[in-house]
Amino acid sequence: MKRIQKGLTLLELMAILSIVGILVYFAVPQYQDYIRKGAYSEVTLGMEAVQKAVIACYGGVTDLSRCDSAEKLGIQLPGAMGDKAGIEIRALTAAITALPKANRGIEPADSCTLTPTVNNQTLVWSFSGACVSKGWVKS
Known about the structure:
The protein is built from three helices and four strands. It is an alpha+beta fold. It has one domain: 2-Layer Sandwich (Glycoprotein, Type 4 Pilin).
């Protein structure tokens, strides 16, 4: 008489759970990093408007020290909204710093700075800070 197996044995069930556990072990950190990158994109998006204002100002005066504050740029700095706590412009260098809120794995200390350097009368921008060291933006 043939015996028909119905269901899984305990060994098969343990093997399946082990495989699922291993997949989750690798997938969860990747997912969390993806969430942080998405949240940080909102932080860097607020920096773009200020960056464009600095570029426009520098194109007219070719002196970064004359484009290093919201008053000189004729703009209002984006304030706290979404994942940003605020944006600052550094005097003399016109470096733009975004200060994030604690949200979705991002800490307030995870600031990001976008710094212009003059190269043949054009501005070259580079990111620095926790946003680069943690891989949330490319430098």
